[in-house]
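Can't attach files on this board, so I'm pasting raw text. These are the components:
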Amino acid sequence: MKWIFRTTITIAFSIIASSAAKAQEPSYIQYVNPYIGSADHGHVFVGANVPNGLVQLGPSQIAQTWDRFNGWDWCSGYNYISEEILGFTHTHLSGTGIGDLNDILILPANGSPHLHPAPFNQMDKGYGSKISKANEKVEAGYYKVLLEDYDILAELTASERVGYHKYTFNKKDNPHLLIDLGFRMNWDTPTDTYLKWVDDHTIIGYRFSKGWANDQKVYFAIKSNTKFDNIDFYNDSTAVKGYRVAQGKSIKAIVTLNPAKPVELKVGLSPVSTTNALQNIEAEIPDWDFAKATQKAQKKWNDVLKKIDFQADDNTKTIFYTALYHSYFAPTLFSDVNGDYMGTDKQVYNDKTHQQYTVFSLWDTYRALHPLMTILEEQKSKNFVKSMLNIYQQQGKLPVWHLWANETNTMVGLPAIPVVADAMLKGLIDKQDLELAYEAIKTTAMGYEHGLDFVTKLTYIPIENMSNESVAWALEYAIADFGAYQAAKFLNKQEDAAYFEKRYKLYKHYYDAEVGHFVGRHANGTFRRPFDPFYAEHRNNDYCEGNAWQYTWLVPQDVQGLIDLMGGDRKFVEKLDEFINLPEQLDNASPDISGMIGQYAQGNEPNHHVPYLYAYAGAPWKGAELVHKTMTKYFTNDPAGLCGNDDVGQMSAWYVFSAVGIYPANPMDGKYVFGSPLMQQATFNLPNGKTFSIKTKNNGPKNIYINKVKLNGKNYPYSYITHELIMQGGELEFEMSAKPNKKFAADKTFRP
Amino acid sequence: MKWIFRTTITIAFSIIASSAAKAQEPSYIQYVNPYIGSADHGHVFVGANVPNGLVQLGPSQIAQTWDRFNGWDWCSGYNYISEEILGFTHTHLSGTGIGDLNDILILPANGSPHLHPAPFNQMDKGYGSKISKANEKVEAGYYKVLLEDYDILAELTASERVGYHKYTFNKKDNPHLLIDLGFRMNWDTPTDTYLKWVDDHTIIGYRFSKGWANDQKVYFAIKSNTKFDNIDFYNDSTAVKGYRVAQGKSIKAIVTLNPAKPVELKVGLSPVSTTNALQNIEAEIPDWDFAKATQKAQKKWNDVLKKIDFQADDNTKTIFYTALYHSYFAPTLFSDVNGDYMGTDKQVYNDKTHQQYTVFSLWDTYRALHPLMTILEEQKSKNFVKSMLNIYQQQGKLPVWHLWANETNTMVGLPAIPVVADAMLKGLIDKQDLELAYEAIKTTAMGYEHGLDFVTKLTYIPIENMSNESVAWALEYAIADFGAYQAAKFLNKQEDAAYFEKRYKLYKHYYDAEVGHFVGRHANGTFRRPFDPFYAEHRNNDYCEGNAWQYTWLVPQDVQGLIDLMGGDRKFVEKLDEFINLPEQLDNASPDISGMIGQYAQGNEPNHHVPYLYAYAGAPWKGAELVHKTMTKYFTNDPAGLCGNDDVGQMSAWYVFSAVGIYPANPMDGKYVFGSPLMQQATFNLPNGKTFSIKTKNNGPKNIYINKVKLNGKNYPYSYITHELIMQGGELEFEMSAKPNKKFAADKTFRP
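---
Top answer:
Structure tokens for the assembled complex are below.
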């Protein structure tokens, strides 16, 4: 698939995005191409939202017969290949490998009302319309499409908690709106839905559902600029007559109206109540001014994108700013404007002192997205951690994969611990919460589930106890344990620090010297045989979405320990070389493993730090080669421009870091390891008011190696920089060359 | 079964109930025998509560293998015949024919902990203990029992929202508490439960369940006077280790402790949050003083019982005050102390201006319980109606049978309308709510469900449309329509009044002159044949829990119309005579039909007004015979002292009215029809500060007829009194005689 419609988009910007220009600021949103990652397995959300907004208002399409290999690519509700739209829904996931949300479907329509979505390729058999890409326009904070079957132009924008629809009926033939609370996609099924026709211009309701989130509750309010002439309610296909309230598993409404001008709807969401949803509308979008709302949304995007002024060719800038844009899709705000939010313990909390967030895809995002936010977003980062501590208090352990007040327990390890520990070390936890944060880390680390009871006893998890994924769990536990170790050290809890130091080294138990990989172990101490380092069947080996080759590098917390295990720098580097030069063979592969360079899989998270491991062995130039090749091969300005799931922004955050030449290989030690920058200059406008610039000299497509580095004008021999130095502001200069300077940071003193 | 343990109870009062005496008020609670109605089909709650309190803390027992005819008699959780207790639960239903609640089971125990309830008659196979009636003590607001298997004395008392437990461990052998959120009885099944060990003395949690209430949510907090040494959590039988929070379908906790003195627990409930549950404890029972809490509870009971000072022999007083006590078991408070409550639309509301109530068994209680409360409880009555209006706003129609924020839609008709209309006429709806109240009545009356679409078109419901119960629905609709008519008239909505006047007379369509009964009609106008006026199969005739004989009188709103239909006074009275003199034959009877005098069934609601119908035909003396016979035959001071389900107080409220000699035969016209008083004197201490006394002269077991009546010393020729006259205060005197005065109120002028 080729991305051939850039012209259309550019024209769009000249009309709509001009608002950002008016503010006399550089416009960064012109470099956002929301289609990147919307084809193939990228699974990104396409539609209108604002940074970290709860509302992600966009089209939901027909997932062509659900199975893992077809419907999977509609996890977000949208795939670039579809040219059919069922309606517009207010919540989406972006880049996940499991589908949920797509709540509160609204569709403007003409003609005879339908109550059920059309099947694929048979749009006359149900509701929904054909569209064409030529008539679709996507920007940060704005979405537009012509619903051809109805001849209705639909435009969408959003604020944090409100979706704003504008429907221009080019023809009027029984014009109506369909509200379908029964609409479902992917894993999701509605359990209880409710609509109330409050007055001529107001509808409220809720939609509760069971899916990936076991018990998801969305309350909403719809305000219309156009009078409702009548509303007919249905439960599934059955008319619900006589009352202005309908409640059931699958409530729908056909709202008839006679628009004299475009129909505008403001749809407020709340995790708590319709009252709050109405208040959210009033607070965020009080006016009926769609253009102004769009401008506000795009200003919000520009305000976060400008936090990194990235100078490069337009194509690279587009890939970069789209990655930065995607880095702000989650976590999403979960507090109402009045401070109410829904706890994981199914009760409403009110806290005006912080904002609660949800959609924590932590196994992905602890690696780069959260570290990126510790640089760009002080207050948000604090709120993310405070949200996790609240979740800890409600569910007894830190979140794993949290979705709308539900712990989904998806993926392996204890991935909140690195985030909390990193925040602690970086001063992003308020003093009064430090002990609570430590309690949360320790309690979580001292659990019993999934082999953790072996870890607490300082031993390995035998495959008799855990027939699949034991190595993945153990390696992730060891990473989290380094976080616990860092936190204990930080708070001067020496006994605990000594204990967790042992734990973060438990990975060594799995190193099978005979094969040179981490391998599952029997209770009697022997390693699993037969052993195939390429074997990668989903949920059916000792790893998780990977094979032995991919997992053998998963010790970011103790790279020196891993180097030692493998026999020193040379052998370590040789093995890395072998890894990236092996055939791209995968035996019975999980579809999550993609973006291959040899056995290196950029398309999934466990390898994200691998290019930066070379620096630990004194060969950062080899890492530069790998990271440069990965960035240029697997990140393109194209709907298929992501090589795997965006994973709620982690893949994009990896690119944001890598493109500016640094990466938090160990996301709990405050170091960012150098790679191979793609830009001329990247200036970080830090939340403390300072700026930190990364300049490059002699950079170019072939000059991918760092020849030497200056910090604030002085020679800087290290292959990493610290968080502290970045936050102090200043200027880092990479002098690039086409040939590697193999001496740069080769010495142990200068390695990360 | 005979009630042979009155002695024990009397002794109990001398110790515990003395608190009421201390206040230098007459003690009425000594005349409460909570066992009345606890055997057979009475289904009353036995345990500790306060008037209209949310918490009803009492034992839950083993419903011996559930089927309609065995387990049915444990609908409340308790039956007098059981001498086994599984634990103490905090919510119960009283007198219903469907079982639910019994939430949050706590059991103090010794020995090896059990996680599952013992089966019937095998107490060693699970948790629970044998008890003996000799060691059980029940009073208003207090419950005590010796758990013999554990040698633990358990005492219970309550406030509105808090249950207070006191456990004296006579022996200590691994003393522990079991908290079983998975415990279920009857229709109920837990769907999601949660426990959090907050600190050494505090546990919080919730229990959500599906049962009669489709989605019931109870939040709670437990405060203990004794330190918890350890808590082990389980989900069903599986240990949940490592965390202090457990969540799942069936969470249980074994709390080990080492009591130096009796263990006391205060358990606060909330429909909204654990935070509110804690606040409810703090507000209602701040101290650790079980005796004081008991005194407070009993004072609250005395304060409502004293609203009618009823002078009669002790046995009659006991039946009377127990009936008055049972009249205060519901509706139950549903607002937290801070004004929060859970709406039927699944969201939390805060309203400090009124108190929300739940447990509205309206098909039962519109007949006598709500009218009784309009005399005794001005503020509560206002709150009941305001609660119903809130429910209307949330669910689009007035409640039918409302249970913990769930509309169960149980029974037939629109039984909230009479209550709202009666309240409107009696000045119990605030001015600013009058239009809302009318809107609620009219919207509810204009619905489409259950044949209502025929009624709105002023025609009958054909049996082709409703194969069962069409007559029952139609007659109840006509009753509600009289309420709508009264409300429209009150608000001077003349067009509506004319329309609803037609509707309340639609009952005439069902009168089959050939058989002299109301009979289901075909669409073509013919009546159902074959016809058997005795046929009474449950949910399988044109009636509802009754037969044609029983339903033929169900026109309280237009008795004169019914008399006319039957051919005048004489034929009407003859038919009533025939009715009560028929054999007590029932063909395929519903178990709800009981308490027979001929075909008159006191044990179910549709006949409750029948004895008073004689007065409408000028023969109140015949009604006196029937009501006297019913009261003395079917209301006894005995566990089996109710002849059918108490129906959340309706059966008891019938007795309260009938025993003082008046009854609201048409509960929407402000008239109370005279019957046959049982007392020497009954003084109503009215909420407006006035008193209304009903005195009798020459009353006695044989002097059951009203010979003549005086009101405030003057001759009073009417066979009814109005609400207005009662509320003005004054004195009504019934002169009784052994022979009927057939002239009394025989004249049309003096009939109701």
